[in-house]
Amino acid sequence: MPRKNSAFFALIALCACASVCAAPGPTISTFKNGQVIGIRATTTEEVRAAATAMATAFEKDPPNRAALLGAAKAMTAKARCFNLYMGRVAMASIQAGKIDASANSEAFLQDSIATLSEVNDQTQVKCEMK
């Protein structure tokens, strides 16, 4: 199980480091109790890279719910919002046929989105992407 957790954190790091010089992308805002606590401007390349990485992660052996929950709780609110929206972008891209993904990768995305949303609800964090 530690291997799965470290792979999940490596994926998160990859998504966070995907920022390169590219066209401006969406801005992700993080709110707690109605107050802005973080704003992240992204690039279209960063969004594309993060969505692709998330859609192709864990094709054979996705992390279990406990590992996802532990990882989500360890993230900052701003990181949870970024990963929540990148997961949603990845899922939409799969559903639109723009990215191929295994059934395990889709299950990982669905579980990841649900877990991040749950932790955000528990911590009164709201996310907005414009």
How would you explain this protein's 3D organization?
The protein has 130 residues and is α+β, with helices and mostly antiparallel strands. It has one domain (2-129). It has five helices and three strands; from the N terminus they run αββααααβ. It has helices spanning 2-16, 44-56, 65-74, 77-95, 103-122; strands spanning 24-32, 35-43, 125-129. The protein has a three-stranded antiparallel sheet with strand order 2-1-3. The longest helix is centred in the C-terminal third of the chain and has 20 residues, at 103-122. It is flat, with a radius of gyration of 14 Å.
Topology:
Elements: H1 2-16, E1 24-32, E2 35-43, H2 44-56, H3 65-74, H4 77-95, H5 103-122, E3 125-129
Antiparallel strand pairs: 1-2, 1-3
Number of H- or I-type helical stretches: 5
Tell me the fraction of residues in β-strands, as a range: 15-25%
**Strand sequence of the main sheet, in spatial order?**
2-1-3
Mean pLDDT comes to 85
Overall radius of gyration: 14 Å
Helix/strand structural class: alpha+beta
End-to-end separation in angstroms reads: 36 Å
Largest sheet at a glance? 3 strands, antiparallel
Shape: flat
- Annotation, overall tally of beta strands: 3
Question: What number of domains?
Answer: 1
Regions with pLDDT < 50 over 5+ consecutive residues?
none
Question: What is the H/E string?
Answer: HEEHHHHE
Helix content: 55-70%
Give me some keywords for this one.
single chain, 130 residues, alpha+beta, three-stranded antiparallel beta sheet, flat
